[in-house]
Amino acid sequence: MKASKSFEALCLIWPCSMGRGRSYNPIVIIVHPHQEEHQSGSHCQERDSVKKSYIYTDMSINGREKVRARQYQIVLSLLLRCMLLFHLLILMYSILNVKKRFQPQRLSILLAIFLLLIQEPGILKEEGNTLFKAGDVQGALCCYTKALKLSSNQSESAILHRNRSACYLKLEDYTKAEADASKALDADPGDVKARFRRAQSLQKLGRLNEAFMDAQRCAQLEPTNKAFQELLRQLGAQIQEKSVQLSSTDARVQQMFSLLLDPLAQSVDRQKAAQNLVVLSREEAGAEQIFRNDGVRLIQRLLGSKQEELVLSALRTLVGLCTGHQSRTMAIVNELGMEQLCEVMGSGASSVSLAACHLLQVMFEALTEGMKREIRGKEEAILPEPSRELRSMLRQLVEMMPASSVSGPGRDSAINLLVKQVPRKSQKNPDNSLTLWVIDQGLKKILEVAGTVPEVSEGPPLTDNSHMSCSVLLSKLYDDLKFLLSWLHFGRPGLESKLRAIQTVAVLLQGPSDVGNRTLEISGMMDAVISLCASEDVCHQQVAVEALIHAAGKAKRASFITANGVALLKDLYKKSENDRIRVRALVGLCKLGSAGGTDFSMKQFAEGSTLKLAKQCRKWLCNESLPPASRRWAIEGLAYLTFDADVKEDLAEDRNALQAMFQLSEDKTVLFAVASTLVNCTNSYDVEKPDPQMVELAKYAKQHVPEAHPKDAPSFVEKRLMKLLEAGVVSALVCMVKQESPALTETCRECIARVFLALVERQEDRGTVVAQGGGKALLPLVSESTDKGKTKAAQALAKITITSNPEIAFPGERLYEVVRPLVSLLTLDCSLLQNFEALMALTNLAGISERLRQKIIKEKAVPKVEGYMFEEHDLVRAAATECMCNLVLSAEVQKLYVATGNDRLKLLVLYSGEEDERLRKAAAGTLAMLTAEQPELCARIPGTTSHWMEILQALLLSDSVELRHRGVVVTLNMMQANKSLAETLMESEVLEILSVLAKATEQSPVSRTAQDCLDKAMEYGIIKKPEGEGREP
């Protein structure tokens, strides 16, 4: 069969019924093409060759001939539509031309796939133009992007790039708008629209000189265009203003340079000059002048100064130069060299180390953002790739890890930088080459730091946070790659090698715990840890006990340690004279004692032993004479023991212990332990309610059934919450949220969100939480946490927004940040309670201002609210209707009711006649506001339902004053909108009802509005005022 073969008619048969075992009549489309052969031509020519198309039902085709005819007809028809996909058609034909029974479903799927493949760029472009004119910029953007992927024509692609540039301008994404306009100009330099759009984008990006050149060219091409002339005028004024600013900035920069280079200048003057340089660098004009006047070399000299203040100023100036500027950052990295910057960060002064760490963080961000940014036309294609500088920076940070010349704080800064900058594998950033490179080049060095025991080995100097920072870094690398680390064989034999191995395992158990657990499964490893606990060396005991504590996380291993190591831990706790060993042994016993979790029936130790352990932990926690490390371990012990409700009660009663724990929460190494303890005390962990039938079945089968502690009842939990609030738990949580540390992981944030949700459960406590800063602290938790943590934080925000004044709870711009988390609760994944609370909170926000209503609409909450108006649950349905009642104050929502049919309006009318009074009030209120703002809706109300008059009369006769008021307002709006509606209403019993309501002795809004209705009827001449009876009709 040849593609160009002429034929008289070809048919496409489509089944009318898919039912199995049923006969159906196929629909046949007859297409009559030209008789001449088509040797070549475009798709449009082939389509234009069609003269007529008829559709009819063929009753004569049956049996095998029918199936065979259908196969040929389908293939030929598709071949006519697109000659370029000939091979695909042959493949489809071969699939259909089998001896098996023909399956219409398979044909439908193949046809759907084929129609998707033959989308034309021209059609997509026209669709995009239509959407753009209609105001759907996002939809137009999608159409242009799809068309660009399909288009192979250069001129057509240039037009698509130009159109997409206009979309990006509307969306205020000026970088992409300029990039697309540049691509359009690369293909067609005479495209004046593309040049004008690029000029607009460059103006918004602050590149005024380039924008002026483009605008000038546009004016030359079309001198009479007023838009071009106006843009030229604006750019000229902005360039002049910038030149004045630059000239004044240049003078200030030169003055600062002179002071800093003057060897006779006083130290105080030089410090002031350096600080002024910092201020100048934070302005774009000042930063550019410093960079162009060879300021980097001057800063390099200041970095070598022995005065700490000058070094700090130099580092902060570099931060200003590098912030958000890729090219300057690359030049600074190449000129200064990473060796010098890392040397400064590794110095002994902690303030200098932190400043250098911040500088490197800013450099990383500038370079990585530069890699993500799309090249904007030919003029920026010459910029070098920043990946070389990034790898150079990472190489120096990795080299710092085991270097003995680097201070402890400097090493921690290097680890934290790696934690922040090693990218995770995700859909947004699928390139994990930097992660692979760090693992390849630096994993051994990281493990060397992790395995360092400061008291024994001659390793690099460490701080108390170094091992925890290593754990976080290893965890991030492991999560990124799911990489199974092999067991690390250390070169040196003997006891020190075993000690280093156990220390490494302890660090792995705190980070990528899967790796640590796999390591502990090596034969003899757990025996080696327990035997090392019996060593007489204090350092050996400390390392082994810490490893034992972290190893007891799994129930199987906890049972092994309980059987083989409890006696040893008790001996260390009772007999050791070193507090470091005693407290660690105590925590080990605490962890083993809590292996049963919240199950009251699972007791690892004898009755009362857990309470004694908790009492000792609280005693050490309150002892300020002990070193902070020992007190931190006491919190670790409480984190495990507070699974027991008796321990929770004792801790809640001990206010001194609570305040000591809150005070220690400022130490970032105990954040998770404090958060876990508070989660246990507030019972804010997830509890699955077992199926009663399954419980009975388990008892019958003599299987263990977990039992809840009597003191975990809601009444006990409520009392504990009150005591925690009195002790100042909210202030402690706020301080924890503000910690900028790798230890504040997403899991830790989830725990904090859980505690906040428990604290705002009682309505009486929400004011206390807000007053102590709890509302502000919840906002970062809804964006940086686990999915469950974000949901918990959003629910806490909803509870606060429902009962507190949102403008006081979230002052200023924070109020607008609350909207998105509340909208995120309107999903099927959330519970009905969360949906209900989110709707109530949004109702309160929507009633505050138009700007908030616009924010809610922008977050696409309106369709979700409409969906919940159909919810079966009465409270959720009523809350959604109340939310819509406030949202219709916005003109944009009113247009939805005006533009569409009567379905939305019908729902409100029907809800106004429901039995649920709360739902009736919300629906009638919405109806009253809509009919007041959009009078044309009044004429549609009779067409919504035949019972509309009965519903309106029921509102007017309601016992509720609020419902009567809504009823008379709707009636007045209908009468004012249309005289015929007024006549219909006055001919019914509404006239008598209004007369009665207007006769009320007390002048109320209902009576006044009813009288206004009667006055309107008299104005129309429908009724007359009887003589001698006042205003009565």
TrEMBL record:
GO cellular component, one term: Z disc
Keywords on record: Chaperone, Cytoplasm, Developmental protein, Differentiation, Membrane, Myogenesis, Repeat, TPR repeat, Transmembrane, Transmembrane helix
TPR repeat positions: 158-191
Keyword hit for Repeat: yes
Entry GO MF terms: Hsp90 protein binding
TM stretches of this protein: 74-95
Xref: Pfam families: TPR_16 (PF13432), UNC45-central (PF11701)
InterPro entries xref list: ARM-like, ARM-type_fold, Armadillo, TPR-like_helical_dom_sf, TPR_rpt, UCS_central_dom
Domain of life: Eukaryota
Any GO BP annotation: muscle organ development
Positions of the UNC-45/Cro1/She4 central domain: 461-592
The keyword Membrane is annotated on this UniProt entry: yes
Coiled coil: none
Protein localization: Cytoplasm, Myofibril, Sarcomere, A band; Cytoplasm, Myofibril, Sarcomere, Z line; Cytoplasm, Perinuclear region
Protein name: Protein unc-45 homolog B
